[in-house]
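ok trying again, last paste got cut off:
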Amino acid sequence: MQLYAWCSRIVASLTACSRKEDKFGVAQLSGSNAAVISTLLSCLLAVENFMEKKTNLQSPNQLLGPAGIKWATVNSGRVDVGAGKRRSGPVNSKAYAIADVLKTSIYQIVSAFHDEMLAGAKASLLEKDWVTTEKPLFGTREMLIQKLRLFLDFRAT
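nice, full thing came through this time. structure:
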């Protein structure tokens, strides 16, 4: 698990450093930054799914800023067969630890590029510049975009 944490932190640090060090914008123009963000968000969604943290994807006309992703609650009207089983033990604690590392890594990148991301979000270019067009490793492109918006508003939990 330590190796995964180091990898996440390293790619986040390299991406964040590209903000000041990459004078010609090669990382941004080549799609490397979008690939890193998309991969980290996709991994976070996979880990949260393992931890049974369900997401409800909202249609674009229902989005009201950071409330784009709503977490399923017991009273949401959904029937979930696995909801009665609580995972515990070392595997679950490792999942929480890796989720924390992924969130920290994503916030490091968002903090470094916050102004550019906000400008892109206002011009409806956030998904074009920061989320790859390929099918994500886990989840959908729309889920990645909504999750990124939560990070951009510093409201991801």
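cool. Residues 90-112 form the longest helix (23 residues). The CA atoms of residues 73 and 86 lie 14 Å apart.
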